[in-house]
Amino acid sequence: MTAPTEGIGALVLVAVWAIGWGAFVWRAGQLYRYLRLGRDEDRTDRPLRRMWDELVVYLGQRKLLKRPYRVRGLAHAFIFWGFIVITVGTVDLFLSGAFGLRLPGTGSAVFMWTVDLFAIAVISSIALAFARRLFFPPPRMHVALDGYLILGGIVFLMLTLLLFEGAGVTAKLVERGSTPPPLAGLFAPYLPADAARAIYGVAWWAHLVGVAAFAAYLPRSKHLHIVTTLPNVFFRSSRPRGALALVADIEERETFGAATIRDLSWKQLLDGYTCTECGRCSDQCPALATGKPLDPQKIVLDVRDQLLREGAALVGDPTATGTAPAHWSATKPDELWACTTCLACVEACPVMIEHVDKIVDMRRYLTMMEAAAPPEAQRAMANIERAGNPWGQPPDARADWAKDLGVPTFAERPDAEYLYFVGCAASFDRRNQKVARALVTILRAAGVSFAILGREETCNGDPARRIGNEYLWQVQARQNIETFGRYQVRKVIASCPHCFNTIANEYPQLGGRYEVVHALQLVRQLIAEGKLRMRPGAADGAEKVAYHDPCYLGRHNGIYDQPRDVLDAVPGVERVEIEPYHRERAFCCGAGGGRMWMEEKVGQRINHRRVEQLLAVRGTRADQAAMVTKVASGCPFCLIMLEEGVGAKGVQDEVKPVDVLELVAARVEGAG
Known about the structure:
By secondary structure, the chain is mainly alpha-helical. It has helices spanning about 10-35, 45-60, 70-100, 110-135, 145-170, 195-215, 225-235, 265-275, 280-285, 285-290, 295-315, 330-335, 345-350, 355-370, 375-385, 425-430, 430-445, 460-465, 470-485, 495-505, 520-530, 560-570, 605-620, 635-650, 660-665; strands spanning about 420, 450, 490-495, 515-520, 545, 575, 630-635, 655-660. Strand 7, helix 24 (about 635-650) and strand 8 (about 655-660) form a beta-alpha-beta unit.
């Protein structure tokens, strides 16, 4: 359409946009200087995967469309896609009004249909967003004036767009060879013909001035994520999700963890700019759900707020330190210690924010700089340092569980194909020793060549690292890596997801690279290859067994299907899901992140809430004979927590926690 700018009008348009976008650039430069206060971190590896993330996560809005947010996620996606399309049209309007230039293809039927369809979709989606905020506000969402201003501004831009398009059709201002706006043209007959040209001019100018005003305001609003999501997705961590960042050259360091805001990486600070304040991370947090002070959204926003408040002073004085992030508020340490590192927050976040890394960095400061870990956690770390296990049991007793089984050690059988890394729980906890014995039964029935380390095995270090004692983790890891190297270990079986995750994803940081499988992955493979056969089940119907996803097997490592396949292969067992809290939305047992060794003194115990979810599924079955009688997992910590939970609820005689390996071992043909 013909631009309503003649003579000085083009200069005014250029001046208005220069002011609006100049304000944007000035504020963006200030925010960038604050960002550079963070420590350096290379996030440029694997460029092809990063580009793929931009296509799928950023442009495709994949994480917005996950359960249980699909409807509102689709509405947000339409706003995002419409914003991109209409931005192209707005740039075309500016170029035509200021310089008489047009972007290629902007007069085509395809483009005009796309613009109008997305304008309607954006208005409809924002109406849904307004209704949700006014009448059905999510419990964790920050509903503030800023959000209404941004949404109102977007609606204003869409309405002025449709208005000047319709008025342009009425006033016959469509350029020769261009397609008239198809949807805006539908209400063109209802506009007064004698005022159409004036309406067109006012709406056209209102739209472009509104864009300039929007640009000036955006970097000062919470909707800054419109800009920062693109780099935040591109620069997301390429480490395995279950791996924490390594503290390199730890012997030479004088400070540890996030002693100041400068000790957080620039990407961790960028996360603060990118938070959409949607509250999805908080919705999924088991600690917050059970009354703990931790709120993952607040963790991120506190980092952002501290950066904005202290940024100018820190930029002006390179020697200034500011407040330690772990003490930004009086409740901050309690928030940090409540985290189970279950990654529910990271899984839920639509813009790739890395909550747990920040929490652990602040824990590192509390633990290694202030010795301020909870007393029970300090006791567990002292036990690891003294005895090589958080239980504090004698190292010589590590293989006592296998004394009557004749399980060889690597010292006795150095040619074994697999090392079975037993782990501390299966070595010293009586209940989990039964799981280790079950795995031995299975491996022998399938003819798998394996051995253990016995007293030469020591804690993998996971509890220490998650509590924040990076130094102790590195000591434990290097000791195991040295032992593995002495026996030329290449393949490792772990029945504990924490051992599995640490050896597979974190030992490579120190040079320990092995082919690591969780026991249930290997059992699934053995069944598929026909190396493991099981006896038929009872003839009087299948036993209903609910499956509980361990966080360090599921969200940390994406292992959801293999345990279910194994459970489905056990004769006489019918698998039941703990809906809707299963797979990537599974509720934590409460033991991860070192919480196994800390008391829950605030709110409800997380494992008790998990048992309530199990009982709710069990209660939906009208037929008593069809009720769930067991809950199976693949993690020793989960087994301990579930057993305590059913006992506390008084249902230990009705629902029995087991490990999937125990169900398999009970049916294995050829077992001793």
